Amino acid sequence: ILVFLEGGMVMIAELCAAKLLAPFFGNSIYVWAATLAVTLGGLAAGYYIGSSLSKKEISKNIQHLKYALTIGGIWMIFMVTISGKVMPILLNLSLGLGATFSLIIYLMPALICFGTCSPLFINILNRSYKQEAGTTAGKVYAFSTIGGIIFTMLTGFYFIPSLGLKITLLMSGFA
Q1: Could you tell me the CA-to-CA distances from 12 to 17, 41, 64, 79, 165 in Å, in that order?
Q2: pTM for the full model?
Q3: How far apart are alpha carbons 68 and 64 in whole angstroms?
Q4: How many helices (H) and strands (E) does the chain have?
Q5: Dihedral angle over CA of 1, 155, 174, 33, nearest 10
Q6: Segment among 69-78, 103-112, 125-134 with least mean pLDDT
Q7: What is the pLDDT of residue 97?
């Protein structure tokens, strides 16, 4: 369930981040390229950090997992506030730089936290169920991706249109 939700939170953060950029930087291919690049960069950094943390014992992995999920959730709650303060300052930069630096500040920290979770999930499950690493990794990434797909659809077709960005991020951060 946590793997599924974590995958969903990644996609909710990404979609909401792009929508937060729109009033300041528009909704062009440049904005989406910046959003995708920062998302992938944040996840890659998180995977790397998680791989270093996952060398510890299971109790430490669970503790690191709790911290990563909590900090990522709290960051999502404050994304609207942080973006509102950052983007007006960066508006004078070129479109690509302004959008990218904005996203690095208000999106990337949450994604680093969520990216940290996958190696921790894999290590905890590997040690608990004594499965092959490939089997565990495949299941973790499958359930995370399925969560991402479902929450992408819910966010794009229901949450944002019905609840708005602030409530969507607030609700997701608490989840």
Answers
A1: 8, 16, 22, 12, 10
A2: 0.93
A3: 6
A4: 8, 0
A5: 100
A6: 125-134
A7: 95
